[in-house]
Amino acid sequence: MGSNTMTVSFPGGKRVDATYGKFEIATDQCVDSGGDETAPEPFDLFLASLATCAGIYVLGFCQKRNIPSAGVRLTQSWERDAKTKRLAVVRISIEVPPGFPEKYYGALIRVANQCAVKKTIEDPPTFDVQTVVNNR
Q1: Residue pair 71/47 in contact by the 8 Å Cβ criterion
Q2: Shortest CA distance to 89 belongs to which of 103, 101, 77?
Q3: List of residues 6+ apart from 16 with CB closer than 8 A
Q4: How confident is the model at residue 1 (pLDDT cuts 50, 70, 90)?
Q5: Separation CA 97–CA 28 (nearest Å)
Q6: What is the C-alpha separation between 116 and 53, in angstroms, rounded?
Q7: Distances from the Cα of 68 to the Cαs of 7, 57, 105, 114, 115, in angstroms?
Q8: Backbone phi, then psi, for 2, in 5-degree steps?
Q9: 4-12 — which CB contacts under 8 Å span 24+ positions?
Q10: Residue 87 half-sphere exposure toward CB, CA atoms < 13 A
Q11: Is 28 left (phi over 0), alpha (psi -120 to 50) or beta?
């Protein structure tokens, strides 16, 4: 995707959707928060972006070395700080099937750590939020 612009709309209820290129990315809130649970919550998509980003690096590693990716999967879990409720720890386990070359275990961890989403969190961008009048 070449665009660096995403447009957000409010289709009803607690839905907040983003349009990015040809993709429509739907979000909703859980019922307890007044939503209809028709789509993941935005924070769920953030967590999924961490896991799938690490996953694409692991998949690329396997493909580059002609190692079958069947039976390889990532499991992500997280903990929140009890006081602030903010994300405190994210754990990613790279599960490999029996017979996966043991010599690559450490390399899998290194490539998963190259995830661009993770690196962005480690060195966060500056946010510039503003209100503008749309004269359309």
Answers
A1: no
A2: 77
A3: 8, 9, 10, 27, 28, 42
A4: low
A5: 36
A6: 7
A7: 38, 14, 14, 21, 21
A8: -95, -15
A9: none
A10: 11
A11: beta
Residue 73 in tokens: 């999967």
Query: Which of helix, strand or coil describes residue 41?
Result: coil
Model confidence band, residue 31 (pLDDT cutoffs 50, 70, 90): very high
Structure tokens at 59: 């998949």
Asked if residue 58 lies in contact with residue 111, where contact means CB atoms within 8 angstroms, the answer is yes
- pTM value is 0.89
3-class state of residue 114 by DSSP:
coil
Helix, coil or strand: residue 63: helix
Task: Look up tokens 């290129």; give the residue.
Answer: 21
CA of 43: how far to CAs of 40, 46, 47, 61, in Å? 8, 5, 6, 28
